[in-house]
Model the fold of this input.
Amino acid sequence: MKKVFAIVEAGPSSVQGVLAGEALRLAARTEGRDIEIEVRTEQGVLNPLGDDTAISGTRLLLVADEVADEALAHRADRHMTLEAVLADPASALVFDDAGQADDAGADPTVPRIVAITSCPTGIAHTFMAAEGLTEGARQLGYPIRVETQGSVGAGTPLTAEEIAAADVVMIAADREVDRARFAGKRVFASSTKPAISGGAKLIERALAEAKVQGGDAITGTGDKAPAGQKERAGPYKHLMTGVSFMLPFVVAGGLLIAIAFALGGIGASADAASGTLAHTLFQIGAQGAFALIVPALAGYIAFSIADRPGIAPGMVGGMLAAQIGAGFLGGIAAGFIAGYGVEYLNRLIRLPKNLQGLKPVLILPLLGTLLTGLLMVYAIGTPVAAVLAFLTEWLRSMQGSSALLLGMILGAMSAFDMGGPVNKAAYAFSVGLIASNVYTPMAATMAAGMTPPLAVALATRLFRSRFTLEEREAGGAAAALGLAYITEGAIPFAARDPLRVIPSLMAGSATAGAISMAAGVELKVPHGGIFVLPIPGAVTHLATYAIAIVAGTLISAILVGLLKRPPVAAATA
Done:
């Protein structure tokens, strides 16, 4: 892949020019491309390029609203405006002759890699995994293109041409990813963790172990499992897929209900308030978004197991679970029944080739819905509803030591692996209870999840000698992530000294969770950190909640500062 030189003619728009340069740099890093960028402003030239911009085997991108230098414009391989680059920096790196030029000069022995990264919340691990794979490919000298399937959809989506040209497709995800595009390609799947911790090693594994992805089973029309799917994803991954798709309903519904109570008071949900804006917002949140929480959870658990034919049986089973009173526990049961039931039926039912198209649109949804519905109504729903009712009542009646204990457990789980399976288990438990109108565990979990990155950020300020210059500079970013409830911001610090840092962080998170639970703090929104706290009605006992977060942060920061070993250079100085 040819090196790209970019010249940004910012003129009076200095800020936009610098932002365009950084956007191009990030897009090139994501795609594994080598780029050098010169930004020309009225205040001077940033990173001036040398004379090698004209050598063969390179491309020149000119970013300018008005071109004053005609010779430069003539020499440029592509010309784009500042606004166009800021809107879509990845497209600026696509040249008209990209296919011919790159293929002509490409080394056939160098593998071409495309990848997808994704996590349940679609925020931190998604992009950390992408960064890990990009850095790993750079170390190995391999070209790579990464599609991040984050919380707002696919970032820099892979094109059909890129997939066709790739030698291997890597999927680093903690939830199920649609593989229909990769039929016939060599595919390797893993969680995000190995991509974050060792991108180069994971790429080497992928090149050695990837298997050809079958096409029929991916769309639910065939009888065989895809050849490239060496092992089935476990129940945890299926559950996290359901949680991932459920979250937007919880967030939207929780915020709308909070706003309704802020506008109309405690009576916003009463029939007497019918016709008011507050009552309307409450109906949208409670009867619209919240009513779909359990069906979405069940439907996408089934989708993770059996692909698209599982969605309808899963959602119908989830709706029945909600109507029976089985709540999120019933939704989880319905999702797994529908998913594994449809998967079994898909293998069991054999049809002539000309009737195969009936399976995913008629036979599997019908039989899967029938199976799931009957089991939910006659066998599963009632006992699960009784278990949920007991759990709900127990949680609501928690006082004193029992509330402290649950808060400590949820808090310690949140900090144990900071976005890993244990953290996500506590998170999924708390989010699921929101559908049953139990909000205290969610408050404790979010407080505990905010504490680790805030604590390491504070520790870098209070105990400067215990951290390297790089770690002290990263403290500011960790603080911002902590405020946004992105626990993963503490991972780089924990990875350097896990035996001392992780227990320190668990102690502070357990404290924050315990204070929150003991005070009966309720949180109706499962994400957002400090940015959702000012919304009236989103959280109760706001002052106590702030005290819980501050207390947990202080405890962890002090423990980290006292226990963490100083950098080697400082220790031997």
Notes: The first helix runs from residue 14 to 31. Residues 97-105, 216-232 have pLDDT under 50 and may be disordered. DSSP finds 23 helices and eleven strands in the chain. The CA atoms of residues 114 and 541 lie 48 Å apart.
